[in-house]
Amino acid sequence: MNSKKLKLFFVDNMIWVILLGVFLFFGIIKPRTFLTFQNVHFILYVSSMMGFLVFAETICLLSGNFDLSIGEIAGFSAMVTAVITVKSGLPGYLGIILVVLIGGLCGAFNGLLVGKIRLNPFLVTLGTSIMFDWLTMVVRRGSVLGLPAVYLAPGGARVFGVYLAIFILLGFAILLAFVLAKTIWGSNLYSVGGNIEATRRCGINTDKVVFSAFVVAGMLAGISGLLYTGYMGVATSNLADGTVFMAFAGAVIGGVSLTGGRGSILNALGGTLLLGIIEAGLTMMAIDPAWQGTFTGVLVLVAILLNQSRQILRDRILMGEM
């Protein structure tokens, strides 16, 4: 690996250096509570739910789009599935399949408007986020209890003392990384995000690629809704509300380009873990929740600044100025 490639590798993967630095920072401040297996385990557990929303946003960003409705899709999918499962006595394993399918259908609706009709993704997903949010209230206000243990297991069960959700997150991270790196669909997704017009001239159906990106994002959001439900033990009408900006921050801090065509799932996972570490650290430092909420907005701004700085560094390295 020559010097230029090494520098680019560092720029593209700097999230892991940042993550290590932040982890050590909180570990030094709160060594007795932060540097424990229980805390690290809980950070990974909580990150598993947000992680699927980060993955969903990553897929959309790689295609040159973004989705403001993934949190609401997670909540809507979970609520509809919970109501159907409890009222009809649907087996838990079928409920797991159903929540993913409903998420995919919601994503397909977004994909149809953005990919096929070619409407603005910001305006489309802003509208559908409001729509799915209120549809969740139409389906059921409050909570749904009495869900089957099998349905709650992905988000709440443990395997050898470790939450199953952690294994699910890591498994999907590896699967998605493989799909993006080794399949035609993954290659087309990067191409569309990098230069959609050039990709279209090469004979690739770009509308279909964008459509499929939103479908996959919706399915991942559905899985997030499933895990959130297992975490809480019930489905609620406000499940995953307001999570989209944290998902956006996690993806971009993890190195996914705002302009599309560049980034990786594994680095997005790093961004997810960084969010979990920061949240746990601030909580242990007894920071007021209002300030923690303010910090969410700061993280979004930091994500945008990091994206810009990363692009400048890449350009300078490629031009031989560094």
Descriptors:
15 helices, 322 residues, 4 strands, ABC transporter involved in vitamin B12 uptake, BtuC, two-stranded antiparallel ribbon, two-stranded antiparallel sheet
Describe the structure.
The protein is 77% helix and 2% strand. The protein is mainly alpha-helical. It has a single domain (35-312), classed as ABC transporter involved in vitamin B12 uptake, BtuC, CATH 1.10.3470. The protein has a two-stranded antiparallel sheet with strand order 1-4. A two-stranded antiparallel ribbon has the order 2-3. Helix 5 crosses helix 12. The longest helix has 30 residues, at 289-318.
Instruction: Give the H and E element order.
Output: HHHHHHHEHEEHHHHEHHH
Q: What is the CA-atom radius of gyration, in angstroms? A: 20 Å
Structural class: mainly alpha
Q: Which class in CATH terms? A: Mainly Alpha
Please mark out the parts with pLDDT under 50 across 5 or more consecutive residues, or reply none.
Answer: none
Question: In short, what is this structure?
Answer:
The chain has a single domain (35-312), classed as ABC transporter involved in vitamin B12 uptake, BtuC. Helix content is 77%, strand content 2%. The chain contains 15 helices and 4 strands.
Write the layout of secondary structure elements.
Elements: H1 3-12, H2 15-29, H3 31-34, H4 37-62, H5 70-88, H6 92-116, H7 121-139, E1 143-144, H8 149-156, E2 158-159, E3 162-163, H9 164-182, H10 184-194, H11 196-201, H12 206-232, E4 235-236, H13 244-253, H14 265-284, H15 289-318
Antiparallel strand pairs: 1-4, 2-3
Helix pairs in contact: 1-15, 2-14, 4-9, 4-12, 4-13, 4-14, 5-6, 5-7, 5-12, 6-8, 6-12, 8-12, 9-10, 10-12, 13-14, 13-15
